[in-house]
């Protein structure tokens, strides 16, 4: 029986020049932080996870040392308790799955059910550009083989003056590419950055926006209301033909149960690096499947987080797309995937996962050494 012998966490920061000004933030980001989790067993194998900052984990390594890394359900329970008391430490779960795959010689997607070894991607933009530049971005995504694109609306933190300007940007995209791309919209109302104290949209605000989005044939409307407004989401879902998506920052699995039972959403979007890990979210994926809802994770962390979400999505199967954070030059693949030896590659809008054991990637040790902090 394999046993965990050590857990090591290192923290890294990639300088960003030019800065990345995320639509949901308002403050230009001049660095991209990553925490790398390495879990080793008594035969010298190493599993790696990343995607959240691992705040609050140090000092609890003893809860895992000496245990079999493949006992992921046991480890999930411990991590869920740590989340309650301290913070989100789900990259540990990703590292455990990576290590379990290396022990068994299987890719994670197969260990999770093996429905597919690839996932279809939608290009997820992050920068608020002028209308013409947004249309050019859509053209580029279409030329690269992506079937769909997500457009960000401004948050109260800054950007365009109002959602009406955001709608004009969508109109410019439609005028340029027609119906060749499916379009989704992230309304950025579900949560706020720590310094942003403005209120989220009311139900009537969201309904007004949804009526305009219906005219443009938008596929889904993401986070149109505060995450706690379940009644509003359910009512909005019934009032409009657009799919309502959300749940990317929902913390607890019982909250997803309530969202499903309340028929609040059409699309569930939790991220394995931020919520529940692979072990927890496979429950949500199957819950969504049984309820006839879509499960397609949020994945705005780094390439390791994207890859972990892809393995879950492929293994469980039937997600229409997976989010592919990509908006060069500010958010390039080289920036997003800097901890990895080779950035992930989309081929004609698909990510192929292959047969490599575990999550199937290697770290760029030189880059990690150069960016290490703390």
From TrEMBL:
Domain Mandelate racemase/muconate lactonizing enzyme C-terminal, residue spans? 131-243
By its UniProt entry, which InterPro entries does this protein fall under? Answer: Enolase-like_C_sf, Enolase-like_N, Enolase_C-like, Mandelate_racemase_C, RHMD-like
Cofactor(s) in the UniProt record: Mg(2+)
Q: One matching Pfam family, short form?
A: MR_MLE_C
Please indicate if the UniProt record lists Oxidoreductase as a keyword: no
What keywords are assigned to this protein?
Isomerase, Magnesium, Metal-binding
Molecular function terms from GO: hydro-lyase activity; isomerase activity; magnesium ion binding
One GO process term, biological-process aspect: carbohydrate catabolic process
Q: What is this protein called?
A: Isomerase
| Record organism | Aureimonas glaciei
């Amino acid at each position: 029986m394999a046993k965990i012998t050590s857990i090591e966490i290192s923290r890294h920061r990639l300088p960003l020049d030019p800065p990345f000004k995320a639509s949901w933030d308002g403050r230009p980001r001049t660095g991209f932080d990553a925490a790398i989790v390495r879990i080793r067993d008594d035969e010298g194998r190493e599993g790696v996870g990343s995607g959240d900052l691992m705040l609050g984990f140090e000092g609890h390594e003893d809860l895992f040392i000496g245990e079999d890394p493949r006992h992921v359900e046991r480890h999930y329970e411990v991590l869920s308790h740590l989340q309650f008391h301290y913070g989100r430490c789900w990259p540990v779960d990703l590292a455990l799955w990576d290590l379990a795959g290396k022990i068994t010689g299987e890719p994670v997607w197969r260990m999770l059910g093996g429905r597919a070894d690839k996932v279809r991607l939608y290009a997820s933009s992050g920068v608020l550009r002028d209308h013409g530049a947004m249309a050019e971005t859509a053209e580029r995504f279409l030329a690269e083989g992506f079937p769909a694109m997500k457009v960000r609306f401004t948050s109260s933190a800054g950007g365009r003056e109002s959602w009406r300007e955001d709608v004009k940007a969508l109109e410019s995209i439609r005028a340029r590419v027609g119906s060749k791309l499916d379009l989704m919209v992230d309304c950025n109302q579900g949560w706020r950055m720590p310094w942003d104290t403005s209120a989220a949209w009311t139900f009537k605000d969201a309904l007004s926006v949804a009526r305009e989005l219906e005219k443009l044939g938008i596929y889904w409307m993401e986070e149109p209301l505060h995450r706690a407004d379940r009644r509003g989401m359910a009512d909005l879902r019934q009032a409009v033909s657009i799919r309502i998506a959300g749940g990317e920052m929902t913390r607890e699995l019982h909250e997803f149960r309530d969202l499903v039972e309340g028929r609040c959403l059409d699309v569930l979007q939790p991220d394995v690096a931020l919520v529940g890990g692979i072990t927890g979210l496979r429950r949500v994926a199957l819950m969504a499947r049984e309820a006839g809802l879509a499960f397609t994770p949020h994945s705005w962390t780094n390439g390791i987080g994207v890859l972990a979400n892809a393995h879950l999505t492929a293994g469980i199967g039937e997600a229409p797309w997976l989010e592919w954070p990509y908006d060069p030059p500010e958010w390039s693949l080289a920036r997003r995937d800097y901890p990895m030896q080779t950035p992930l590659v989309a081929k004609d809008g698909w990510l192929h996962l292959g047969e490599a054991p575990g999550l199937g990637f290697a770290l760029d040790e030189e880059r990690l050494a150069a960016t290490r902090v703390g």
